[in-house]
Amino acid sequence: MRLPDGWLDPHRHSEGWLAWAAALPRLAATLLDEWDLVEDGEQRHGNAAVVLMVRTADGTSAALKVGWPHEEAQHEHLALQHWHGQGAVRLLRADPGRSALLLERLHPTDLSDAWDLQACEVVAGLYQHLHVPAVPQLRRLSSYVGRATERLAELPRSAPVPRRLVEQAVALGRAFATDDATDGTMIHGDLHYENVLAADREPWLAIDPKPMSGDPHHEVAPLLWNRWAELAGDVRDGVRRRFHTVVDTAGLDEDRARDWVVVRMLHQALDELEETEPDGDWITRCVTVAKAVQD
Q1: 105 vs 31, 47, 92, 183, 200, CA distance in Å?
Q2: Whole-model pTM?
Q3: Domain count across the chain
Q4: Per-residue pLDDT for 195 more than 90?
């Protein structure tokens, strides 16, 4: 196993990450041995995980994913186990303590090159399989949105974000934090174009969930902020077309989905503003999306 470029860069990562990354090749070798796996294909990786193409002892093609242990991915195995391969990659084996998952092997093709509205239809079509009653161990969306909203309420007026949007998101966020419908459904949490891969048993399957007990309407926003360059010259209408495609295909409530987009985009902007060197372009994108779904 080889580490992706930059994973041992002390200027980019914490000491905890660096220690984990340095130990990753040994961990992967141990898992291959313990689970009787043989490497079989090109290695892949995401931002926080390495995926080895493998074959099991009985010759089954599979993928060994070993990831950085963090809160958002803590219950990935539970979500995959609960979905039983319906709308998502099938889980074959898991060791949560070592953040290791043995998954069915999917193709490397994702939705990045599909027509964006067609891709939105594909993702929205997966919602019916993924949005099932939540298991009790999952983080609750209401708790997260409540904490983030109170941080947003403390944002100074001098912040480079329209004050009316801040106040709107605070009001909406506080309402969502006390709304019973904000929790109770298992949601993917990070369902965008690159987290849907082509498969053999189904045309497309979701991967890499950051599962929560939440509200299906919370899922829409990543489809609006990703593949941003394609919207150049037509941002407002392009965002709106994506939004309405997802809402119509999935049968979501348009007003509730719109409110969640506003809240989620302002929380994203807040997270960036709290960074040591905020990315102004990303903050502008967040504001643009929040405006576009309402104009």
Answers
A1: 17, 19, 10, 32, 9
A2: 0.94
A3: 2
A4: yes
Asked if residue 25 and residue 141 are part of one domain, the reply reads no
Using pLDDT thresholds of 50, 70 and 90, give the confidence band for residue 138.
very high
In contact, 191 and 197? CB cutoff 8 Å: no
Express each pLDDT in 9-50 by its tens digit: 998 889 999 999 999 999 999 999 999 999 998 899 988 999
Buried b (16+ CB within 10 A) or exposed e, 123-157: bbebbebbbbebeeebbbbbebbbebbeebeebee
* CA 133 – CA 40 distance, rounded (Å): 36
Gap between the Cα atoms of 93 and 103, Å rounded: 7
190 part of the active site: yes
Instruction: Let me know whether 193 and 267 are in one domain.
Output: yes
Between CA 207 and CA 188 the distance in angstroms is: 9
Question: Are the C-beta atoms of residues 39 and 87 closer than 8 Å to each other?
Answer: no
Asked whether residue 83 is assigned to any structural domain, the reply reads yes
Q: Which of 40, 95, 179, 190 is catalytic?
A: 190
Q: Which of 76, 104, 132 is where one domain is finished?
A: 104
Range of the domain at 201: 116-292
Q: Is residue 10 part of a domain?
A: no
Rg (CA), the chain: 20
Domain shared by 144 and 279, yes or no? yes
